[in-house]
Design goal:
The chain is mostly beta strands. It contains no helices and seven strands.
Length: 104
């Protein structure tokens, strides 16, 4: 399993249960993306209104393609559809730096 490293930056609301958090990451082109979803859709510790934000979390993703630069893989095209999340803009595919991905 591969996860995109992100940050939960704030608690949004207690409803719907079990609560919503705002999560952000910046892609390989330096564009910031925001998700507002139920907290269990992100890997990491349990989140609560009184958690100490920002908190590092992960989004389960599928690797769609590797983009090579000078013979090395610098960026990776991913999809965040495995857990059914999408950005506030409705996007589910992103190009990210390879070091933004983790397997834990």
């Amino acid at each position: 399993m591969v996860f995109l490293r992100c940050e939960a930056v704030r608690w949004v609301d207690d409803e719907p249960q079990p609560g919503l958090v705002e999560v952000r990451f910046t892609d390989a082109a330096h564009q910031q993306w925001t998700f507002i979803e139920k907290w269990p859709r992100f890997s990491g510790e349990d989140l609560h209104p009184d958690s100490s934000y920002p908190v590092e979390v992960g989004i389960l993703c599928d690797i769609l393609d590797s983009v090579s630069s000078s013979g090395t893989t610098d960026t990776v095209k991913i999809s965040v559809t495995p857990w059914g999340v999408e950005s506030l803009e409705g996007c589910v595919e992103f190009e990210v730096r390879a070091d933004q991905l983790t397997t834990s």
